[in-house]
Amino acid sequence: MAYSSSLTDSEWEILAPLLEEILPQKKQTCPPKWSKREILDGILYQLKNGCNWEDLPKDRPPYSSVYWHYKQWRAAGAIDSLMQVLHQQVREQVKKSPNGHA
């Protein structure tokens, strides 16, 4: 089910390659059960709605998985890096200096 916080396909096309560059690489012991998109949609749902992690909808990955990834990504600086890259891209699209200066 799509929520207002869910990524559209075009948004995911922008984010997917950035996530591959920015997210910390972890040792794969087995194939992941949840895609990065599903995890990110869970994170975005919680951030937008301000609910407890435990209250994520049942059609999202388990809150423990979503929260674990959120903590790992945040601690590694991946979320801040992603925001910086996206902010820079938007500034370039509107013909402003990418670094935020005049």
What is the count of DSSP helices, taking H or I runs of 4+ residues? 4
Quaternary state reads single chain
Ranges with pLDDT <50 over ≥5 residues?
none
Average per-residue pLDDT, rounded, comes to 89
InterPro entries: IS402-like_dom (IPR025161)
Organism: Gloeocapsopsis crepidinum LEGE 06123
Protein name: Transposase
Pfam family, one: DUF4096
Structure report:
The protein has 102 residues and is mainly α. It has a domain at 9-76. It is 56% helix and 0% strand. It has four helices and no strands. The longest helix is centred in the C-terminal third of the chain and has 16 residues, at 78-93. The mean pLDDT is 89. Residues 7-82 form the Insertion element IS402-like domain. This is Transposase.
Descriptive tags:
102 residues; mainly alpha; 56% helix; globular
Summarize it.
With 102 residues, the chain is mainly α.
Write the layout of secondary structure elements.
Elements: H1 9-22, H2 36-49, H3 63-75, H4 78-93
Helix pairs in contact: 1-4, 2-3
